[in-house]
Amino acid sequence: MEEHSGRTEQAGRGDRGDAEYRVEELATATGVGVDTIRFYQGRGLLDPPERRGRVAWYGEAHAERLRRIRKLQSQGFTLAQIRRVLVEPEPEASPEPLLAALVDAGVGTRTLTLDELSAEARVPKVLIRGAIDAGLIEPLSLDGEERFSESDLEMVRVGLSLLEAGFPLPQLLQEAVRHAEHMQETCDAAIELFDAHIRKQGPAAGDMEAITAIFQRLFPLATRLVAVHFQRTLVTRALRRLQGTEEADAFQAALSALETARLEVDVAWR
């Protein structure tokens, strides 16, 4: 009886142009699983439904939000990035141009399953799981399935190369976690600076096209700045430690062979 009554009410409201869905119907309409819909609600990515009696009703706004989340995830955005774009945007500005710039900057145009990531990187799944547990890799969630970006693939390949060079896995993971924690803090601070002085103030404030152009110019510069600073610091401190030893000459020769005096950084994968 309740089912019949609910569908009659849905039909009546549909006549007024307001599509309504029960959660199972919303899942069918958007291709997003019921459990995933509830997960998004718990993460604040999806507004709660309207409850009438014991029935929860979702509207077209919910359906559109789910479609946008799914599209952004397929492009490689994490849920944290999606929340920042969809839930916390500037009310007077559309984020679409900046979103496109983020995708172009290398967030990723495809995603991989764990099996595909393992096969393409030639890394056992157990090692990838270790990187996930350590917080070094953050898998996406597409309809409840873990997916990985091309950036994850590149990081796994680089990590494997370091292991093959002789670095012990436990110590390498420990240092990688420390680096990731500091890098997250640095990136958050950089985002706050961009928000405060580019998006919200200055001549480009409120103009998403201008903001996007600035982002496209600053992104590779910021990436190179961080990488060059790391290289310079690593070289300087290594030479300081090796100063006066036989290894110093060998290390300096290796640097000369690599022509690292200019500290060129290959960030083509970005």
Structure, described:
With 270 residues, the protein is mainly alpha-helical. Among the domains are: 2-72, Multidrug-efflux Transporter Regulator, Chain: A, Domain 2, CATH 1.10.1660; 208-270, no CATH class. Helix content is 65%, strand content 7%. The protein is built from twelve helices and six strands. It has helices at residues 2-14, 23-30, 34-42, 60-74, 79-86, 96-107, 114-121, 125-133, 150-164, 169-199, 208-242, 246-258; strands at residues 20-21, 50-52, 55-59, 111-112, 140-142, 145-149. It has a three-stranded antiparallel sheet with strand order 1-3-2. A hairpin with a 2-residue loop joins strand 5 and strand 6 (145-149). Helix 6 packs parallel to helix 11 (208-242). The radius of gyration is 24 Å and the shape is globular. The N and C termini lie far apart (57 Å). Mean pLDDT is 76; it is low at 1-17 and 260-270.
